[in-house]
Write a structure and sequence with these properties.
Elements lengths: L3 E8 L5 H14 L5 E8 L9 H7 L2 E4 L10 H8 L9 H8 L1 H10 L7 E5 H6 L2 H11 L4 E5 L9 E3 L5 H8 L5 E6 L3 E9 L8 E2 L3 E5 L7 H5 L4 E4 L6 H18 L4 E9 L4 E7 L9 H8 L4 H13 L3
Parallel strand pairs: 1-2, 1-3
Antiparallel strand pairs: 4-7, 5-6, 5-7, 8-9, 8-10, 8-12, 10-11, 12-13
């Protein structure tokens, strides 16, 4: 059979540039050479493509997007590929943009019955243009302390801080605004951090959840950037050490988030399980990490899905209906 030509896109201008390069390298090494003819397409921090996107349609059959955060996961690169009529892995441009917007996707999840922490949105224009004390009071009236301050549209816990008193609030917001034009003040849920991947084959009702992973940060108070990417900074247990009924509840939440938002191929949903057994959805990642230490490939392996097979599923989903 003719080999499928796969352009692996990696890099980009986001704060997750280096992680994306690692994901892309892992994808390149994992694509079965008897089925695929793969080549890298690195995108610089200045958005310069090593292979111009208008040439990709000639050189490749499909683009595998191994990019995280701004530009790669927010619908930007997907829109570029749509304009060039190039097939690509993962979710559509519109779905990617919605998932990247934590506030809007959270409202969607809440509307369809998933539990979501109380969340207060602060645009930077409001923060810069009015009495900051008034903004802080409004936020605290809606979300009590302790709470989480984070950028509205970043991944890998970039710019996230947990604050426990009003004195820390202003600095946390100023910090979040260095990464985004919008910041979230979110209810802090005491509980266990869990993440759950979902795969699908590209057609309706084909999605299925992977075993959830419990995350126990070792060097930080929560699963921050350091805990995610520094070896030994967190303990990751798959499947999570939970009764089967709670595992099923978490899987159904992740599956619901994947379906309700319209994700394709793969996703990973982060949740908090509180002491009462309530599952709170924090966010959905439409391009989960694919590095040697990433959670989705590890969970897939526990489910009996090798990394090359995982890539087959993601690529296969992108070819459905084309």
């Amino acid at each position: 059979m003719k080999k499928l030509k796969v352009a692996v896109l990696m890099g980009g201008p986001s704060h997750e540039h280096d992680v994306s390069l690692r994901s892309g390298a892992k994808v390149l090494s994992g694509l079965a050479p008897e089925r695929y003819e793969a080549f890298p397409v690195e995108i610089s921090r200045e958005c310069k493509w090593a292979v111009p996107h208008n040439e990709l349609k000639v050189r490749g059959d499909v683009a595998f997007i191994a990019m995280h955060g701004t530009y790669g996961e927010d619908g930007t690169v997907q829109s570029i590929l749509d304009d060039a009529q190039i097939r690509y892995t993962g979710s559509s441009a519109a779905v990617s943009a919605l998932a990247m917007n934590k506030f809007l996707s959270g409202r969607l999840f809440k509307r369809v019955g998933l539990s979501v922490p109380h969340t207060f949105l602060i645009p930077k224009t409001v923060w810069d243009g009015v009495d900051k004390l008034k903004v802080l009071r409004s936020a605290f009236q809606y979300v009590s302390s302790p709470c989480v301050v984070k950028p509205n549209n970043q991944g890998s816990s970039v710019g996230v801080r947990i604050i426990r008193n009003a004195e820390e609030f202003k600095g946390a917001l100023d910090y979040a605004f260095t990464f985004s034009r919008e910041a979230l003040v979110q209810q802090f849920i005491h509980g266990r951090e869990i993440t759950c991947g979902v795969l699908d084959y590209g057609w309706p009702r084909s999605a299925f959840p992977l075993p959830p992973t419990e995350i126990v940060p070792v060097t930080s108070h929560f699963f921050d950037y350091k805990s995610k990417y520094e070896p030994g900074a967190s303990e990751e247990i798959t499947p999570a050490r939970l009764p089967q009924h709670l595992i099923r509840t978490i899987q159904q939440a992740a599956l619901g988030a994947h379906r309700f938002i319209g994700a394709r191929g793969f996703s990973r949903t982060d949740v908090i399980l509180d002491k009462h057994g309530e599952v709170y959805v924090l966010e959905i990642n439409t391009i989960p990490g694919l590095t040697e230490g990433s959670l989705l490939p590890k969970a897939a392996l526990v489910a009996g899905i090798s990394f090359p097979r995982l890539l087959d599923i993601v690529i296969g989903a992108s070819l459905q209906g084309k």
